Amino acid sequence: MIKNLLLILLTTTLLLNIAPAALAKNSQIDEFYKYLTDEKIYKEYKDATINVRKKMKITAYKDIEKELGKYSFDVGFLPNSIPKNDVYFFASIIEDNNRIVKKFAIYQLDGELFTSGYSSRTKGTTGLDDDFSSLKSSIVKEELASDKP
To answer: N or C end of the chain: which has fewer CB within 10 A?
Structure first.
């Protein structure tokens, strides 16, 4: 009986200590996103089809490309320019009947912008529905900070 009680007490203590750490994993990126929006640096589009917020190794970008599918970005990293530490990756995409608008931003953990991009295309203007060769790698600050495409 005492062993069972001790086992329950130990299990409860472990769960109480582990649960906040698991919940805090996403709160760090949400806190950083809140900082970006408060400072009018980056906002997700209102009514976005997809919003992505991830803390990751930049080398894991190929996994995000797979997740995004037709909405993926050609970020075009140069091998010697890749940060060695984790980064924050944000993307916001709107698709409606007439157009697709995409933007992304990658920040180093210290808050410095690593790279960003933006593209807007009216559907049917090219032969390829997923042609985003016009993705602009130098994005104006106003576009990153806007929640409207």
So the answer is: N
- Residue 112: both structure tokens together: 């410095």
Q: Which residues, listed in sequence order, are joined to residue 30 by a DSSP beta bridge?
A: none
Tell me the C-alpha distance between 143 and 149, whole Å: 8
112 HSE (CA, 13 A, CB side) = 6
Residues present in the chain in total = 149
- What single-letter amino acid sits at 61? Y
Residue whose entry in the numeric block shows the structure tokens 């329950």? 8
Whole-angstrom distance, CA of residue 106 vs CA of residue 58: 9
In contact, 105 and 141? CB cutoff 8 Å: no
Give Cβ neighbours of residue 108 (< 8 Å, ≥ 6 apart): 83, 85, 87, 88, 114
Give mean pLDDT in consecutive 10-residue pieces for the chain, a chain of 149 residues. Answer: 59 45 60 90 92 87 83 67 80 91 89 85 60 48 79
Q: Does residue 13 come out as left (phi exceeding 0), alpha (psi in the -120 to 50 range) or beta?
A: alpha
